[in-house]
Design goal:
alpha/beta; four-stranded antiparallel sheet; about 15% strand; globular; binds calcium ion
Amino acid sequence: MRMTVTRQTQSAKLKTTTIVQTFFFNMSVLSQSLLIVILLIFHAQAFAAQRPNVLFIISDDLNNSIACYDHPKIETPNIDRLASRGVRFERAYCQFPLCGPSRNSMLTGLHPNSNGILRNAQIFRQTIPSHHSLPQAFRLQGYFAGRIGKLYHYNVPKSIGTNGHDDPGSWEMELNLAGCDRVEEEPHIFTLTPGRFGGTLSWYASPKSDRYHTDGLLAADAEWVLERCARQKDRPFFLAVGFYRPHTPYVSPKPYFDRYPEKEMPVVQGVREDQADLPEPALGSYKKEQDKLTDDLRRQCVQAYYASVTFMDAQVGRVLDALDRLGLADNTIVVFTSDHGYHLGEHGLWQKMSVFEESARVPLIISAPGKGVKGGVAKAPVGLIDLYPTLTELCRVNKPKNLQGQSLVPMLKDPSAAGRGWAITQVTRNRSAKQGGRFFGYSLRTPRWRYTEWAEGKQGKELYDHDADPKELTNLAAKESYADTIAQLSQQLRRAVRETFPESGKTPELRPATWAPNLTNP
Ligand SMILES: [Ca+2]
Ligand SMILES: [Ca+2]
């Protein structure tokens, strides 16, 4: 009995002990779980805080008229300062020398043949609607993604102040500013084609100071947004700032014009001799109105372009200063680039839509604190198509599987890295149906050569040796002594062209009725 009691007592004690132990065990599991959850939250926050921000700055129609690209006349102290903090890509190329196709390609990470955007005033949602754009990929991984100014296509200047042909899915904030250049000064602008300011050469030295101009307003808004981003330390940002200058009309404050005396501006000489060895499509971007250009007008045009570049550079400086002032510089990757290059009279051409070096080449600077060298110069050919996989790798953001570019991270760490070894740019030439309709020019750039085929060579070929002829003045394509080089480059070009298509081999077509009502012209 006693034993029993004892046993019962022991059993009760045992039960009590078990309950207590289970309680404490459960509590311990609970607290461990809680601890794990707390640690995970802390880790996620720490991870979010550790992930670098991205400041993506793009200028419109800017060629390599930048001091750090060894331009003899231009003043761009702020872009130069950025280059000293990161890697400057000496041979960076757009995939298509026109705003809409280039920007859609850069922001989808797909060649125009794969996203179907080969003209302006279109957006990839009309062709491949479920593809994730570069800023959208960042949004989906918890970044704040915002846009100020022009990132996708805009009609400049008509759409300034609107969303343009934007992709609302890419951003959770869009700011559209319109300054005096758009809302007040158009009646004063000199233009080759009366009443038109965007597609045609046009310029004006404005009496108003920086802060009244669209790009000045953009810079002020970028400062305002960065101040607010700096206060929210647990969420990284992807802030895209798209300046409008030096796109036509070249309107900027007069003091910028005064830095470039008209009489000192260069006028390209020897155009007729240079054009003699060119196939006709090579000059297909020429516009009839440009016949009105006298040498005096050519000097004024170059002066106004340079003034716009230096004005835009000053606005870049304001944004970079804000990063420094707000303590964001050490944890922010900064990209500076342009959507394509620009002719200022070379080969007798102005503006874009050629595949010569001046039109296909873009400035590209990436500053990635702690993840790349400072003041490096990478010389291997790269493309704007490479920005998407570069930024996702730097920020550990998931990317779509079908991206067509290469990550430039190895070149940020070692600017002498060879990379892919080439870049490709394509452009369209439109003929009447009787003359065979539309065809493409494809141009391959290797470290030494530029090789171009028009309509697979049926409409002409061009070969330039950059070691001997950096201005692409002598077309070697018809010279027998270069036959082997041409055969090899032609094979390489055709392989590269195949890579610009999706796996199916077919360019996606524009779906009907996929555009919003026209909201681009207020
Ligand atoms: Ca452009
Ligand atoms: Ca020539």
